[in-house]
Amino acid sequence: MQGRCVMIPKLSAEFFGTFWLVFGGCGSAVLAAGFPGLGIGFVGVSLAFGLTVLTMAYAVGHISGGHFNPAVSLGLAVAGRFSWSEVPAYVAAQVAGGAVAAFVLYLVASGQAGWTAGGFASNGYGAQSPGGYSMAAALVIEVVLTAAFLMIILGATSPKAPAGFAPIAIGLGLTLIHLISIPVTNTSVNPARSTAAALFAETGAFGQLWLFWVAPLAGAAIGAAIWVHLLSREADAVAAPPMAPAA
């Protein structure tokens, strides 16, 4: 019973954090990016995704760890930073939070006369790719960028990293990831985000959703393995930079 009570705040934090990521990130693409004359474009959408993670990491990261992403939960477990037994519950909370956010976004967006969901900020390859990139290209970029994202997370939250700056590094890292890959897949690196958008897209997004689970999860495991076997011992042995603030 006590274990369940401990999990409620963690799962609630993951639910609301993922809600904010999907509502803020996908919402910027659905509502603001295409506004005539004032669209925020790729850069604005990229910043929106990064800012959602940055703000929620500071807001609830101390409660749940601030994963907001099934791939992150898996990668942290592979790296020994998170309990495998909690991964399924975290993933369920993240997928639920993303789905509810997409539903709320759909309610808001559909209030505009003549609006249609279209791609609804979903991820895809081939005909569903913003730039017409192939399935192979989508697979490679999602694996590589998710691996890099896990390395950023593990490095920024390691004991020798400057204290208090991890959400900034992680948020900016996600912004850069979007700047690179929006033209290729519309950027996933997060199966919960991809699932949420696919639920309401009026394209073939749901049929391609498998790639946006397989690639981010594989990339997360690879990034965690690289950190554990090639970088973590060196990082633990090197002192923090002199300018690093005290914990």
Automatic annotation (TrEMBL):
<feature type="transmembrane region" description="Helical">
    <location>
        <begin position="12"/>
        <end position="33"/>
    </location>
</feature>
<keyword id="KW-0677">Repeat</keyword>
<dbReference type="InterPro" id="IPR000425">
    <property type="entry name" value="MIP"/>
</dbReference>
<keyword id="KW-0813">Transport</keyword>
<feature type="transmembrane region" description="Helical">
    <location>
        <begin position="163"/>
        <end position="184"/>
    </location>
</feature>
<dbReference type="GO" id="GO:0016020">
    <property type="term" value="C:membrane"/>
</dbReference>
<dbReference type="InterPro" id="IPR022357">
    <property type="entry name" value="MIP_CS"/>
</dbReference>
<dbReference type="InterPro" id="IPR023271">
    <property type="entry name" value="Aquaporin-like"/>
</dbReference>
<protein>
    <submittedName>
        <fullName>Aquaporin Z</fullName>
    </submittedName>
</protein>
<feature type="transmembrane region" description="Helical">
    <location>
        <begin position="89"/>
        <end position="113"/>
    </location>
</feature>
<dbReference type="Pfam" id="PF00230">
    <property type="entry name" value="MIP"/>
</dbReference>
<comment type="similarity">
    <text>Belongs to the MIP/aquaporin (TC 1.A.8) family.</text>
</comment>
<keyword id="KW-1133">Transmembrane helix</keyword>
<keyword id="KW-0472">Membrane</keyword>
<dbReference type="GO" id="GO:0015267">
    <property type="term" value="F:channel activity"/>
</dbReference>
<keyword id="KW-0997">Cell inner membrane</keyword>
<dbReference type="InterPro" id="IPR034294">
    <property type="entry name" value="Aquaporin_transptr"/>
</dbReference>
<keyword id="KW-0812">Transmembrane</keyword>
<keyword id="KW-1003">Cell membrane</keyword>
<feature type="transmembrane region" description="Helical">
    <location>
        <begin position="210"/>
        <end position="231"/>
    </location>
</feature>
<feature type="transmembrane region" description="Helical">
    <location>
        <begin position="39"/>
        <end position="60"/>
    </location>
</feature>
<feature type="transmembrane region" description="Helical">
    <location>
        <begin position="133"/>
        <end position="156"/>
    </location>
</feature>
